């Protein structure tokens, strides 16, 4: 029988167990915050019509959240071989959608999605904990760079500093308020209910970049900001489950708790 140590040496983890990425993507509340921010930016993207071609997010935004998280965790929390298989599946799904539509998803749209996952991972952690250190920011970027390269996304920046510059270019160039933006937000409201939808808007106002906030006319609420800062101080107190309790309807709570993964 091959020992665990030997298996680890011959087939290492895709993401190092000390990586900040594992800590972020194994925390259910941080994952929900990442997708709260992503939901805002997805709705504004000039390539948002691809979401309407498949129909999955407009039809069931919460269900799509769960499937996306499962994919992400099948990359972040597994060994190199399993992660590569998941990445290959994602590539195949994208190719299938392109074939069905008879068009190619723009290269810049792939970069947009990768970039926002980096950005909201950083922003979510800073909101509930503290800003990432320089080393942690570089670690976060390097993990997603490897994911982007495995997905064959072209013209990726080579460093965190280069990513910051390109991220700003993409934000200003690739986002606009459209009929699809309005339709997606109607879907969010329908599936979350009125008061959870209102809270989503408040959370998005805290998370998103200024340009996104302006396009969506979101206004940050000082009370919500204060609650977020308090949250970061409570450690393992039951308040730590507050984000998913408030943002997601109760029938989904057991599924959200399954997002929890040990970092090491």
General description of the model:
The model is unreliable at 1-8 and 233-240 (pLDDT under 50). This protein has helices spanning 4-10, 20-25, 28-44, 49-54, 56-59, 61-76, 80-101, 107-128, 134-150, 160-174, 179-192, 194-207, 210-216, 222-231, 242-247, 253-257. The protein is 71% helix and 0% strand. The chain has one domain. It contains 16 helices and no strands. The radius of gyration is 18 Å and the shape is globular. The two termini are 24 Å apart.
Comma- or semicolon-separated keywords:
globular, 264 residues, 71% helix, mainly alpha, disordered N terminus
Total of helices: 16
- Report Rg: 18 Å
N-end to C-end Cα span: 24 Å
**How would you describe the shape?**
globular
Q: Note poorly predicted spans.
A: 1-8, 233-240
Number of domains: 1
SSE layout and pairings?
Layout: H1 4-10, H2 20-25, H3 28-44, H4 49-54, H5 56-59, H6 61-76, H7 80-101, H8 107-128, H9 134-150, H10 160-174, H11 179-192, H12 194-207, H13 210-216, H14 222-231, H15 242-247, H16 253-257
Question: What would you say about this model in short?
Answer:
This protein has 264 residues and is mainly α. Helix content is 71%, strand content 0%.
């Amino acid at each position: 029988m091959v020992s665990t140590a030997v298996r680890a040496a011959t087939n290492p983890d895709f993401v190092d167990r000390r990586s900040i990425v594992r800590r972020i993507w194994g925390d259910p509340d941080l994952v929900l915050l990442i997708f709260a921010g992503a939901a805002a930016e997805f709705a504004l993207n000039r390539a948002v019509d691809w979401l309407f071609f498949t129909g999955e997010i407009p039809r069931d935004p919460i269900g799509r959240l769960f499937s996306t998280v499962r994919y992400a965790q099948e990359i972040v929390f597994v060994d190199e071989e399993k992660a590569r298989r998941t990445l290959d599946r994602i590539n195949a799904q994208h190719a299938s959608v392109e074939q069905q539509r008879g068009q190619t998803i723009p290269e810049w749209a792939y970069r947009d999605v990768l970039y926002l996952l980096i950005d909201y991972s950083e922003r979510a952690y800073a909101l509930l904990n503290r800003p990432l250190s320089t080393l942690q920011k570089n670690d976060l970027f390097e993990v997603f760079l490897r994911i982007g390269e495995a997905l064959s996304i072209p013209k990726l920046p080579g460093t965190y500093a280069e990513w910051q510059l390109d991220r700003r270019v993409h934000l200003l160039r690739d986002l606009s308020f459209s009929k699809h933006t309005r339709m997606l937000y109607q879907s969010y409201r329908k599936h979350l209910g009125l008061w959870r939808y209102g809270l989503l808007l408040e959370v998005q106002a805290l998370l998103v970049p200024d340009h996104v906030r302006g396009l969506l006319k979101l206004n940050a609420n000082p009370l919500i900001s204060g609650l977020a800062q308090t949250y970061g101080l409570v450690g393992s107190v039951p308040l730590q489950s507050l984000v998913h309790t408030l943002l997601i309807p109760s029938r989904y709570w057991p599924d959200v708790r399954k997002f929890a993964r040990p970092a090491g």
